[in-house]
């Protein structure tokens, strides 16, 4: 099973899509574009020996089949855990000169734990609410310290702007997806995957340049190049959000079990965190230039 985390290899799931964009036999949360195209396709949730179609008739009883409300409730719970942990870490882990080293250490440790929990979940065949909520909580600790430091030392008030920007990007992408201005196909998923691979490789190269004394690295943290890189990161996150929407839509159409809502929440939360961080860094660049 592959995670829906944009930092992980969720675009790898597209390798099992057929030439006609048929859906691979994987449940929601196994990777971006896991159900590309849902008309007249084999139902991945049908019991062994049975073949369903993507017409919304799944093998689950109506009381146990996934619904949009299930996804909304689980996603709200996961995002709530992120927000609560972020607020508490903001208040309890100060970033003043006397405490910044300790707070940064805790934040880095929380980020590592969050990544480890996301990896554990990605290799499980079934969702674990404890792992997903744990990931959200530790991710929130990191976001709280990082956001506090950014607001304190770089751009006061930028956190509220970043939250509003994340909401705006998400709402815009949802509208575009619902109106079918964006069609999530195998080619779309493959393009996003290739772009994400290049983006991550550039981030690694930039970190290596900075670590070995190249100052500002490859220049992605300042000036016009930094702004362009930030805009690209936000656009990439928005594309991942479209892939998440497609996963949810197809899982509901195929009658996925209700527990799959946790995997959908995991993927949506990871994508929204990605978008928030990119928006926060972009706004910080604008504030620095001013």
Characterization of the model:
With 290 residues, the chain is mostly helical. The protein contains 7 helices and no strands. The longest helix has 31 residues, at 223-253.
Number of H- or I-type helical stretches: 7
Strand content: under 5%
Order of helices and strands: HHHHHHH
Q: How far apart, in Å, are the first and last alpha carbons?
A: 46 Å
Oligomerization status of the protein chains: single chain
Number of strands: 0
What is the percent of helical residues?
Answer: 55-70%
Main beta sheet strand tally, sense and closure: none
Can you give the mean pLDDT? Answer: 78
Topology:
Elements: H1 68-92, H2 100-122, H3 129-153, H4 158-178, H5 186-211, H6 223-253, H7 260-289
Helix pairs in contact: 1-3, 1-7, 2-3, 3-7, 4-6, 4-7, 5-6, 6-7
């Amino acid at each position: 099973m592959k995670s829906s985390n944009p930092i992980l290899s969720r675009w790898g799931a597209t390798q099992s899509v057929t030439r006609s964009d048929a859906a691979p036999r994987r449940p929601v949360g196994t990777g971006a574009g896991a159900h590309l195209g849902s008309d007249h396709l084999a139902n991945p949730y049908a019991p062994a020996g049975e073949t369903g179609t993507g017409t919304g008739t799944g093998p689950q009883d109506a009381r146990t089949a996934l619904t949009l409300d299930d996804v909304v409730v689980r996603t709200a719970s996961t995002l709530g855990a992120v927000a609560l942990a972020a607020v508490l870490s903001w208040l309890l882990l100060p970033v003043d000169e006397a405490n910044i080293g300790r707070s940064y250490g805790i934040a880095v440790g929380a980020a590592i734990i969050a990544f480890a929990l996301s990896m554990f979940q990605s290799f499980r065949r079934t969702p674990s609410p404890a792992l997903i909520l744990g990931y959200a909580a530790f991710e929130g600790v990191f976001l709280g310290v990082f956001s506090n430091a950014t607001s304190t030392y770089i751009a006061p008030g930028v956190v509220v702007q970043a939250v509003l920007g994340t909401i705006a990007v998400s709402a815009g992408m949802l509208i575009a997806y619902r109106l079918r201005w964006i069609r999530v196909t195998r080619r779309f998923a493959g393009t996003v995957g290739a772009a994400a691979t290049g983006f991550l490789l550039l981030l690694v190269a930039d970190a290596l340049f900075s670590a070995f004394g190249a100052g500002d690295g490859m220049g992605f943290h300042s000036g016009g190049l930094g702004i362009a890189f930030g805009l690209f990161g936000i656009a990439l996150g928005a594309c991942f959000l479209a892939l998440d929407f497609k996963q949810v839509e197809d899982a509901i159409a195929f009658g996925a079990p209700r527990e799959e809502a946790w995997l959908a929440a995991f993927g949506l939360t990871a994508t929204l965190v990605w978008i928030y961080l990119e928006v926060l860094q972009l706004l910080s660049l604008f504030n620095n230039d001013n």
